Amino acid sequence: MTEGIGDPRLSAEGELALARMALDEADYGHAADHVAGALVHAPTMPEVHELLAKLAARTGGALDLFPLADHVYIGAVVARGHLLAAAGKPGEALELLAAATGHQPTVDWAGVPWVADPDLATRVDPDQLARTIMQVCAGVPDPVPDEQREPLRPYLRVAKHAAAAHPRHALLLGAASALARRMGETAIAIDWAQRGVRVMPSKLGEVWLGYAYRSAGRTRESIAALRRAVAHDPADLSVYADIAGTLADNGQLDEAIRWIDDALARDAEFDCAVHTAHRLRYRRDGKLSHLVALADFQRHHPDDSHEHTDLAECCQDVPWLGRLPAAGEAVINVLRQMLETEGPITGGRLRLSNLEPPSAMRTVGAALPDMAVMVERVPEPDIRLPRRTGGRSVWEFFETDAMPALREPSDAAVERIRQLALPAWPHPQSAYDAAVSLALLDMDDLLALLVHPPAPPATELGTALAAHDPSLWVRSVQVWACLGLLHHRTDEPWRTSTRRRVLLDLAWGVEDWITEAALFALVTAAWVTPEVRADVATLVRERLADIAEVVRRRPVTIAWSVAQLALATPELDAKTELVARTIIAAERPVEEPPAPPQRKAGFWRRLLGGRG
């Protein structure tokens, strides 16, 4: 099989050439393989379908050449679907195309003449049509982004033909409404759902109608339909959650919580109700305890009825809960500005009033090696000295120049961190789970990554970071390296563990971005392990108190970020929370760099803040 690199049509033509050779030699198995490969590259290309028809003619239908198995190739699934359609089994054929769409919804698997034929809807059982349309709906977002809708339009045409051919089939009308809603066709979605409910009033029909109204912004009618759904089946608590979510999205938060409390009174463990309740209560009062309780529930109920995104939605774009804050040092702000200038950057001199954290200074030195950075003074307390002595040091200073005190990391560690380091995550528990892939790295390698961050990978993300904000990449490496340390020797009791001791050494070491990364790892430990929460809250309180003391004497560029970390700490006491909020209010907020010229702002927002 070709790798599919380059022009898809050329790749398909290459597969077809090989398929024709195999067909001429009566090597039907290899011919089928290459036709399947061609379909993957160009699923609507007429020449591919012509050769598939020839293969079928030579072999009596060719279905045996495209069997369904546990790990079947998607091209073989699509080929079998087209052969079934030709054999007079369009219902089964459409189901296979829908399965392919569920696997790769951005590919135009169904954009072929037999699917577009209006008579298809009369030749397929309406129950089967309804199931197939629901299958398509299950595999695509709600709503489908504009740029992803075109490959799904063949199914919407099928739905339109089906609604016309079977005007009194309630299930089919409702399923068609669900697809139309996802495709932005809200008027049609409402019409079909209304017709379905008139034909056969049901809970599912009212839910479809409620969703259609909601997508159209008709909140009152949406709530009314969902209430009727509850009347049909008071035991279906998922509808309660839908009603609560709809009310909350339209500013009726108190009523939304009353609905979700009613659901919890009926079943305190029902996953949809629990997720919705914590999300809405967090929206009401902003208390972190709701999110921590939701994370605990999610960890203890891995087999929920379906995937929930409530925790990720609440953490999205919140410093440390869902993303890494941008660095706020003066030297980094200058670096960002200079990287946005046109033309090569050579020479120059930068004068700093105060020495800033070593990671920041070295990031600028690596990005602008020809620039001379002059430091006017090193105020007290000396930023070059650990805040507590006795721990392992990762930096050593020569005057104001910081140098790594550790050897460089291994190639394996560099490759692993490049695959993992990102400036955003769904929530702390998710970050912890993702970092398990670092568990097999030596501790010395993880520590070395903190002071020897590798160059970013040659991906779109890595290229953007290198060009516009190298500091965010360095900080990402440090955060994920510390999360890796959190997975080190997990069999050791927490209080006396190596991982706790090392992370504490880093948190109390030289004031640096590494301080933040180590504290985030400790906070993450509290998120995933309730037994360590009191200890971590104490550690964060002590470190924040030290920063509050230092801030009275000199600038602390990491103060705002560490205060945000404190607010992300489970079971933090009220006094420390007040200290954190005071620091946040007093310190200049860390500013994210502006969207670079000639780049899509949406991509840059996703890159920096995890926003969609």
Q: How many alpha or pi helices? A: 31
**What's the mean pLDDT score?**
92
Fraction in beta strands: under 5%
Terminal CA distance: 35 Å
Helix content: 55-70%
| Secondary-structure content class | mainly alpha
Coarse morphology: globular
* C-alpha-based Rg, rounded: 29 Å
Main sheet: strands, sense, barrel: 2 strands, parallel
Number of strands: 4
List the helices and strands and how they pair.
Blueprint: H1 8-24, H2 28-41, H3 46-59, H4 74-86, H5 90-103, H6 113-116, H7 120-123, H8 126-138, H9 153-165, H10 170-182, H11 186-199, H12 203-215, H13 219-232, H14 237-249, H15 253-266, H16 271-285, H17 288-300, H18 310-315, H19 330-339, E1 349-352, H20 358-367, E2 372-375, E3 395-398, E4 401-404, H21 411-420, H22 428-434, H23 443-451, H24 460-468, H25 470-486, H26 498-507, H27 513-528, H28 533-551, H29 559-567, H30 574-586, H31 601-609
Parallel strand pairs: 1-2
Antiparallel strand pairs: 3-4
Helix pairs in contact: 1-2, 1-3, 2-3, 2-4, 4-5, 5-8, 8-10, 9-10, 10-11, 10-12, 11-12, 12-13, 13-14, 14-15, 14-16, 15-16, 16-17, 22-27, 23-25, 24-25, 25-27, 26-27, 27-28, 27-29, 28-29, 28-30, 29-30
